[in-house]
Amino acid sequence: MNPYYEVEWYDKETNTRVFIVIDQLMGGLAAGGIRMSPTVTMEDIRTLAHLMTKKNSVMGIPLGGAKVGIVGDPGGADKEEKLRAFGRMAESLLKTKLLIGEDMGISSQNVKSIYESISFNPIELVVQIRQQQGLQIQMPEGKNIDDLLSETFMDYLAGFGLMEAMEEAAHLINLDLEQAQVGLQGFGTVGSGIAMLLLEKGSTITAVSDAHRCMYRQTGFSLPELQVLKEHGGIIQPELFKNVKIVPSSEIVALPIDIFIPASISHAIHKDNADKITASLIVEAANFPTTSEAEQILLEKRKVILPDFVVNAGSATGFGLLITGQADYQGIFQATAQRIRGTVKTILTESLKGEKTPREVANELASYNLKEMETSERKVETK
Which residues form the Glutamate/phenylalanine/leucine/valine/L-tryptophan dehydrogenase C-terminal domain (predicted)? Predict the structure, then answer.
């Protein structure tokens, strides 16, 4: 399916190039993050916008997916200038159908400044469109768009959603998280956040890898040790850790672990290493970490994979439930948990029959939900 809308804009005055893709418009709205990178391309944004649609659809949320790319250095002195240029170019979209959020290189404060540069509160757009549909969207007293878009709120929702998905998957395959040994590939923002959540659940982090090395300790790593690793940017420095086994990063898949979490690069699991994986549960915290050939190998080995667009749907699910009127602010975490757990149970129950990978089932569910939501929307429009 072709995107609903895509455009490339260039502002000569500020040397700002922008890619915008609205993959799907549903209920009059589409939502997605802004990515700033010197190397971002239209193809990247097109792929990520479609992924946003899948995240919403698989969770049964009637909200279109979108993505924005700004070519530039997120640490550059001209960042604010480029953000204002984007705001000027995209003003009509931002005031009528496109909701933006943080992504790589863009903070919630950056998003707030974009909206301020065009003197617009996006909650007004949501409220207006939902009122036209007969729905009432209200933020509780003392809360505003800053609370909804804050990094603290969105990051917590993301981690919360991931843990809900993992707990449901573990329950379905009779894996006790409190006894589980976990291997993390990548210890950046995503990997370190997952590690802290797992430690709270009683799991043991026994293996961590960066781009070059993997360190393993059967008894696991303590919170202070993992905080030291985080302070060093997730780069393993063996002299800082005692009684560890150091192996090449590629060997993490073969270590004796129960849960493997690729949290850094795409295609980390491929046909040449899938057969070596010892973990019974693979949780895709990175985007596209498993190739299709590897998935088939893992299916035959009865390994369970939680697909990336399900695992990483926490913030999208919570945000989507709020702005579509399916949950209020006070009940957002309970509603998010119920939606994610129900979706994971449906996907894995079908996949565990042995004929389809979890991704295949999830894709089918997303397509089915999307068609059902489109049908419902057409019915409303014809009334």
Answer: 152-378
In a domain, 292, yes or no: yes
Residue 67 annotated as catalytic:
yes
Q: Which long-range contacts (CB under 8 A, 24 or more apart) does 2-5 make?
A: 3/46, 3/49, 3/50, 4/30, 4/64
Return d(Cα 86, Cα 72) in angstroms, integer: 12
* pTM given for the model: 0.86
How many Å from the N-terminal Cα to the C-terminal Cα in the chain? 27
Q: Provide the token pair at 172.
A: 């379905």
Q: How many CA atoms lie within 13 A of 151 on its CB side?
A: 11
Count CB-CB contacts under 10 A for residue 208. 30
Give the angle subtended at the CA of 201 by the CAs of 208 and 58, to the nearest 5°. 85
Tokens representing 134 are: 């007969």
In the set 12, 54, 55, 67, the catalytic residue is: 67
Q: 76-89: per-residue pLDDT in tens?
A: 999 999 999 999 99
Number of domains in the chain: 2
Do residues 302 and 262 share a domain?
yes
Write phi, then psi, for 213 (nearest 5 degrees). Answer: -125, 160
